[in-house]
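Hello, quick one for you while I still have it in my head. A protein chain has come my way and I'm curious about its shape. Can you walk me through what the tokens say about the fold? No rush at all, and the record is pasted right below.
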Amino acid sequence: MQVPEDLKYTESHEWVRLEGDLMKVGITEFAQSQLADLTFVDLPAVDAAVDAGEEVAVVESVKAASDVYSPIAGTVVDVNEELSDSPEKINEDPYGEGWLFVLKPEDVSILNALLTPAAYRELLPDE
């Protein structure tokens, strides 16, 4: 199971990549593997203000629907529109083309409160 070293993670299986003063967010390889083949993604609205831990998106698969939570407080500045037509990009490339949305954080230092790759790996079941 891939857990890239350049990301931060949440206990609810979202990842965060700092890009300048913005944070790109997606779901982890573990999360997408548990859902199986994704069929639909409901993304947040651009310019929406979100709180840390708030439900901001939904991913649906042939097995289940799962909420996606904002790892930090901020404003949604971009969403991955390609997922509307191709939700399978999350299954194929969860840390690349399968990103969900981009946040402008209220406080960038909150990134330090998120899980390190090592701490996230500890949450995952043994393979």
